[in-house]
Amino acid sequence: MPHPTSRQQLGNLAERMAEQIMCNAGLSCLARNYRCRQGELDLVMRDGDTVVFVEVRYRQQSHWGSAAESVNRAKQHRLIHTAQHYLLNTPRLANQPCRFDVIAAEGDPSNPKSYHWIREAFTC
């Protein structure tokens, strides 16, 4: 297995920090890095009875837009289709309410203050 690049390592760190922030807020993790043909879900969390599909975006700098802005319509479309695939393969959750959150981080990925949690960032 190839070694992750420094960019991948920063992304992995951002995902771990985002999960920790959400767990500290009382959510529980159902899945990490769920992949299928449609795409990838960084985190699938549970907030009470709600299934939360989380996209974690990290940007070291915002020269080309913020981390949150990078979750454009095309990315949202892929996330929605991937979430549908996840629910089809996890029937016990299929009838639960769902939402899409974005956790955007800029600057130092090890600093929790650089994270912005956008609940219900977009809808289906």
UniProtKB/TrEMBL annotation:
The keyword Hydrolase applies. Keywords: Endonuclease, Hydrolase, Nuclease. GO terms for molecular function: endonuclease activity; nucleic acid binding. It comes from the Bacteria. Gene3D superfamilies: 3.40.1350.10. Belongs to the UPF0102 family. This is UPF0102 protein SAMN05216586_10440.
